[in-house]
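Minimal example, chain plus magnesium ion.
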Amino acid sequence: MATIKRTEISSLGEFGLIDRLTQGLSLQNASSMLGPGDDAAILQPANTQVVTTDILVEGIHFDLVYTPLKHLGYKSVIVNLSDVYAMNAIPKQILVSIAISNRFSVEAVDEIYDGIKLACEKYQVDLVGGDTTASPKGLIINVVAIGEQHKDHIVRRSTANEGDILCVSGDLGGAYMGLQMLQREKQVFLNAPEANVELEGNDYIVGRQLKPEARKDIIEFFEAENIIPTSMIDISDGLSSEILHLCKQSNMGCQLNEAGVPIANETYNKALEFGIDPINCALSGGEDYELLFTIDKKDADKINHHPDISVIGEMLDANLGVKLYTKGGNYHDIISLGWDGLKDE
Ligand code: ADP
Ligand code: MG
């Protein structure tokens, strides 16, 4: 039987580890003048920059019982790129800071960085710096992402107008159902380690949870079609919560049509199996990393034929409130339950 190699981080030391993690990095973007190695990275942007950061804490944002380290590294980059795309900007650089306990080996850190580097390659982003430190117990990963866009093309949450069409990319609720599956199988495993963990047939939803993608393709489509959304936000906390953000910051009301909300078959069926109304997975489940945006009516024809963009509603006067129009023909106020609200059902 092959034994898994375990090198203690202490045997490399902090600088040895940083060297190992950052060796062989090449810079792909013109604005990245200097990467890791000096006191700071040097950037020479040709355009306006957007900057964002997200922190992932073991036990809060991820559970290593079912999260492969490479996926974790990948996802830690994706969640930040998604925020940059949600500004209609193109991510160019990231910085990665990790706090790690001696529970983890050098090989474990390598796996995290394999995922980080894979995301960098796929999305053409340069890893230009970070910080590395010890932690008493858990693992913490913080990523900063920097993007560029002409200032007139940057899209905020606060600029939707009455009559604009509300749209979403991809499908919703899958990551939430994937998480439900992983948590259920973890419980089965903890209760009876000899039992078979059954994730087969759930590839789509488990993949949505463990290895999300950011919607680079949608931003490229906007550029190609000369569309500048009137407002945009990425869906990290569930559709309800993000719609409320758009409406509040734009001082708008809205009608969301339940019939238009895209839910994949696998998500739909798994929700029913768990006794959850599928629409609630989309409304309150998190981590889909799709884009929610509004466009002017004049651009409607441009998106009609896009196979991965759904029209889900319309922006209205603020006095009309933020409503869900159900398949049964009723109106409900949209409220934000967030993750915990859904779990209690
Ligand atoms: P300082 O003590 O000045 O903070 P460090 O020794 O922490 O310097 O970092 C040295 C260089 O290595 C810097 O350029 C920093 O950005 C880079 N670096 C440190 N940790 C990481 C990491 N985890 N990933 C990428 N680059 C890193
Ligand atoms: Mg440092």
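The chain is about 35% helix and 25% strand. The chain has two domains: 9-149, 165-344.
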